[in-house]
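Supplementary Methods S3. Complex input for the S-adenosylmethionine-bound model.
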Amino acid sequence: MKCFFRNLIANNLHTCAVLFREVPRNLKGKKHSSQLWLTRQLQDPYVEKAKRENYRCRSAYKLLEINERFKILQPGHIVIDCGAAPGSWTQVAVKATNANAVQKDAGGIVIGIDKQPLYPIENATLLGGMDFTAAESQNELLKILNGKKADVILSDMAPNATGVRDLDHENIIQLAYSALRFALQITKGNGVFVCKLWDGGKSQQFEKDLIRFYKYVKCIRPEATRDESTEKFLVARGFKGIKSTSSSTT
Ligand SMILES: C[S@@+](CC[C@H](N)C(=O)[O-])C[C@H]1O[C@@H](n2cnc3c(N)ncnc32)[C@H](O)[C@@H]1O
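Predicted complex, serialized as structure tokens:
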């Protein structure tokens, strides 16, 4: 019996931390906010899972759930990942689009961009240290696309949170519109746009703007989104093009 339990624990060390709700030690001298962050990280099953499955962070499970539900990423797709650091969405996109040429299907192209440095991910093109909202960054993306249009534009971009809910909402909305304006220029017919928002007063208008350009717009709060977060994702599918609609977005 003892042996059975010893083996069970040895084979499931990663889950044990979660089962026993590990509490971090050596917190002395750390700020209260850092203590909370560390405790939460250690108790978070998605952090554990990401480590085990070699994703750079827990956010991977948000895109995996979105993709499971809406099947937005297909082999051969061209994907732009805005706000890509540290890189877990890019990792998911590389696999799902076959950019790593593991399957016989067509190989996709995945391009990630972030203000933060991006450490290489095999079979992805990464633009680290670049502000997506800057014209030069978007020109760089266009140069890489070389006249091709994208199937999927993802934006998990988030500003540094100030803790002031309205201000954080305003800042993320600005990023979301920047991603949408770019998506309108470079998305293939029937393409997809996925965008993160922190909910607030302008979410509804943003959703209405999406409905002008995409046939189907759904809002999803993935399982991996933390309870205390106002985060939600808008998944817009079936890009209609911009010819038949007026193109003004805020
Ligand atoms: C939640 S993280 C993205 C996590 C990423 N999806 C992943 O799975 O690894 C949000 C990212 O948005 C980036 N970001 C915020 N504003 C940006 C901007 N103007 N241009 C590019 N990236 C930006 C941040 O640097 C941060 O890395």
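Residues 56-57, 59-60, 83-89, 113-116, 131-133, 156-159, 175 surround S-adenosylmethionine (CB under 6 Å). The chain is about 40% helix and 20% strand.
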